[in-house]
Design brief:
Blueprint: E1 6-8, E2 14-17, E3 28-31, H1 34-42, H2 49-65, H3 70-81, H4 88-106, H5 111-137, E4 145-149, H6 166-173, E5 178-183, H7 190-201, E6 206-209, H8 214-220, E7 225-228, E8 232-234, E9 239-242, H9 245-254, E10 259-262, E11 268-269, H10 286-289, E12 290-291, E13 294-295, E14 308-311, E15 318-321, E16 324-326
Parallel strand pairs: 4-5, 4-7, 5-6, 7-10, 8-11, 10-15
Antiparallel strand pairs: 1-2, 2-3, 8-9, 9-14, 12-13, 15-16
Helix pairs in contact: 1-2, 2-3, 2-4, 2-5, 3-4, 4-5, 5-6, 8-9
Length: 335
């Protein structure tokens, strides 16, 4: 019952589930150009750190499908890399594609099938990493557990069963009673629109709360743990994730609730020393000024709309990774 947010379309176009229309409409788009993939990533039609890396890798193959040479393929990589600045998976995937393109071009071989194969390998590897993350976090989800999560880090954000939601899906498949409390996640409501949609579709009981209710819910004492995803994890363990994650981490610490971050190795960035060095994307003021097409903010007021915040490593209980459940001191095993 899990959604398939990305696939190869006819003739190796890129087929995506348009996540801007969920939960009211389930519409799939076939993207045939690099520009179309770039627009889909910018507009959040396809989103989630691992998934945009996969989508970008697939998108580069469209340039070769159109007859581009090595220079054209590298130009496509640059264009797709410019779409989102925070999620390091995007850069990681495109670096792999660049290396593969240069190697194939150096042999004088056809770029298109090689780039399709590389993008498919990135997708398959992500699916396997999601499964291992689920297995690594399964021990954190006992019978009757209630997990609080923020934003969407499930099947809609990855090539598999998700990162933050992977242990929940594994526990559900194992027959354990598990439920989820999902922050709505302002301003684009990925928690209520997407996380609640995919969890309930999979049969996992889910309660949506407004972001400003998370601390009160944690105070009630019925939350087993918090699990969130990540868009980039710095060398020191600081975590960039959807705006509002930092507040949840502070509330979890205050109420002695374990706070875990789930992410594949491709999200760890040893080249970024700490959270202060992570570039934070700022998005359009219109996302805050409007809700469902209705103006909800005074036009004379300024708007600050960062897409992400940084949670310091000292607030993270542990990291659920495809290499196991790690402490901050053990993150060096991923480098």
């Amino acid at each position: 019952m899990l959604p398939a947010p990305i696939a190869w379309g006819s003739g190796h176009t890129v087929r995506i589930l348009d996540q801007t229309l969920l939960p009211t409409e389930e519409r799939y788009l076939d993207l045939a150009t690099v520009d179309a993939v770039a627009e889909a990533i910018c507009a959040l039609r396809v989103r989630g750190a691992p998934l945009i890396g996969i989508a970008a890798a697939m998108g580069v193959s469209l340039a070769a499908r159109g007859g581009a040479d090595l220079a054209g393929v590298l130009q496509a990589c640059d264009a797709l890399q410019a779409t989102r600045p925070t999620a390091v998976n995007l850069f990681w995937a495109l670096d792999r594609v660049r290396a593969r393109a240069r190697e194939v071009a150096g042999r004088g071989a056809d770029l298109h099938p090689a780039l399709v194969a590389e993008a498919t390998a990135i997708w398959n590897e992500d699916r396997a990493m999601c499964d291992r993350i689920g297995e690594a976090g399964l021990s954190l989800i006992p019978e009757g557990a209630t997990v609080l999560t923020h934003c969407n880090a499930g099947a809609l954000a990855t090539g598999g069963i998700g990162t933050a939601l992977a242990p929940i899906y594994q526990a559900h498949r194992a027959g354990r009673r598990v439920s989820v409390v999902a922050d709505e996640t302002r301003p684009l409501l990925q928690g209520s629109r997407l996380t609640a949609w995919e969890l309930t579709r999979a049969g996992v009981p889910t309660t949506v709360i407004a972001d400003n209710m998370a601390a009160s819910r944690l105070r009630r004492g019925d939350i087993t743990c918090v699990i969130v995803g990540a868009d980039r994890i710095a060398l020191n363990g600081d975590v960039a994730n959807k705006i509002g994650t930092y507040a949840v981490a502070l509330a979890a610490r205050a109420h002695r609730v374990p706070f875990y971050v789930a992410a594949p190795r491709s999200t760890f960035d040893p080249a970024t020393a700490n959270g202060a060095a992570i570039p934070i994307e700022e998005r359009s003021a219109a996302e805050v000024r409007r809700a469902g097409g209705t103006i909800v903010a005074a036009s004379a007021a300024d708007v600050w709309n960062p897409a992400f915040d940084v949670t310091p490593a000292e607030l993270v209980t542990g990291y659920i990774t495809d290499a196991g459940l790690l402490t901050r001191e053990e993150l060096g095993r991923l480098v």
